[in-house]
Description:
- The structure is a homodimer.
- Chain A has helices at residues 15-27, 39-47, 72-78, 83-92, 105-116, 151-167, 190-200, 227-254, 264-269, 296-311, 314-325; strands at 2-6, 32-37, 57-61, 98-101, 126-131, 138-141, 176-179, 206-210, 222-224, 278-281, 287-289.
- By secondary structure, chain A is an alpha/beta fold.
- An eleven-stranded mixed sheet of chain A has the order 3-2-1-4-11-10-5-6-9-7-8, sandwiched between helices.
- Chain A is globular and about 60 Å long.
Amino acid sequence: MRIALDAMGTDDAPAPEVAGALGALSHDPDLSVILVGDEPSLKAELAQHPGAPIERLTVVHATERVHAGESPALAVRRKRDSSISVGIKLHKQGEADAFVSAGSTGAVMAASLFILRPLPGVDRPAIGILLPTAREPVLMLDAGANVDCKPRHLLQFAHLGHIYARDAMELESPRVGLLNIGEEEGKGNEATVEARTLLAESGLNFVGNVEGRDIIKGDLDVLVCDGFVGNTLLKFYESVAEFIVALLQREIRLSHTTEQIDLREVFQVLDYAEYGGAPLLGVDGVAIICHGESPPKAIQNALGVAARAVRSDMVSHISRELAVASAPSGGG
Amino acid sequence: MRIALDAMGTDDAPAPEVAGALGALSHDPDLSVILVGDEPSLKAELAQHPGAPIERLTVVHATERVHAGESPALAVRRKRDSSISVGIKLHKQGEADAFVSAGSTGAVMAASLFILRPLPGVDRPAIGILLPTAREPVLMLDAGANVDCKPRHLLQFAHLGHIYARDAMELESPRVGLLNIGEEEGKGNEATVEARTLLAESGLNFVGNVEGRDIIKGDLDVLVCDGFVGNTLLKFYESVAEFIVALLQREIRLSHTTEQIDLREVFQVLDYAEYGGAPLLGVDGVAIICHGESPPKAIQNALGVAARAVRSDMVSHISRELAVASAPSGGG
Lengths: 332, 332
């Protein structure tokens, strides 16, 4: 099992990437990691870890780096030797079984679509994000790749989410819900009203419409929505969590009891790093996107998720099951 | 100034309504309130408040009540003598200058559309909701009345929000933002890309696209979105705030410092009751909808907001300004 890791992705690259890779290697004896990025920086960083299992670590040089503000499409076209493009090409050519990056989400998506290509039966690859809830995290997709969605796209997202939750999250029969503004049939906008009918006939474990207030309860495993709503919810969630915790910290400080309160539990529940990256689902390969501020733990978890996706043969499952789902008799 | 108040709207009706009305009357000497609902219950409740200014309180009997689970359209058609329909008719006939209800949002909306009617130049009346932020609350509209919106509808929401924020919230030049998934021009779904252009030419104080993560910062006064996204965000926000506060309370309890932490400040910031109701904007009248769990304070504040909307002549401003905005040369 070899995973190509974009070592220039995080804001503090390459230190979190190298530390995360070493964490993953010590957890998984069958794993090898290909660090893709500026070779001198990577060699220098590796020298900081004298006990590293260098027999399972390869460095592949990439001369360029995609920066946060760049246009993803332009970056992919112009920077052919970026750590993102080089890493995805390694995966495409079979040198690596998966690709993980904490770089620009848009650039990873653009390069994946361009180099790996969508699978047959998938009109629109989607980004899945794990949202913290009161119980287990829920996989929400699409988190921003597709802003205008037809009912059949939402149906495809449901299939993609189902397969990822089953294969990479190891859930036996993932509960799939459709984000909507009411629970009853007939509620919603044009796309969700029709998507609900398609989902009810899909053969998936469809639990029905789910309202904004129900997400946090954690009663489902996969939440389907268009990328406009998904992206808005995701960004709003992060900011609200930060805001409320900041409000509370101020209050606790004012009451002079700082030492006696342990906020770690709260932060842990809200900590995306625990969950390990967002998969780009529906392309011909395993591509996992991490937050730009990922600590080593997040990189390590993302490598673990990528390995599970590869071992479970997720891509061929998607290819097979989506071909069936998109056949004329499958509706939509 | 006479306001008709649906006295059968809250879950604990009519006690919060009566207490809220008395609070508003003591704050505003020029106000009269018409309590609409079951006369015997209202007389009994008023008897609990011996010092009430009865010369400014009228009771109008309504034999029926719309319940939470009912279909709004059916309830309005079948229950002609509900407290909602009777109250709105009082407003329509000029017996009252405004209407306030904590009853079924759908029924208030349906009855307002049916009895008051939309103003000329308004294709789709919208519900505005005040969301708590790190600074002042932001008026988000539409909060759920219209799920599939064209760019011109979003433009109308912006005008409606601008006028309400100016007239009822007393902001001189309300900053209007468009909810979107990126700040740059060209970002978004079909409706928001075109709406951004219309808003830039609208003459409003348009501050551009606003992402999910920026809402909480409180850098704007009016946030425009379609009702699907707005309703989802609103319900999600309420549930996330409750969830995080519950997490924290558990943590504080575990650390045995319950008595020393004052969460009131946090709750106050997140307390919708402070802000006083959601206006239904674009109908020929002033209709304010409160949460079904509204305490007296929320009813009192909603009556205050309604009074400001009436005194500022908001409805004729909407009528005049929307007619200009929807004229052919106004675009859209």
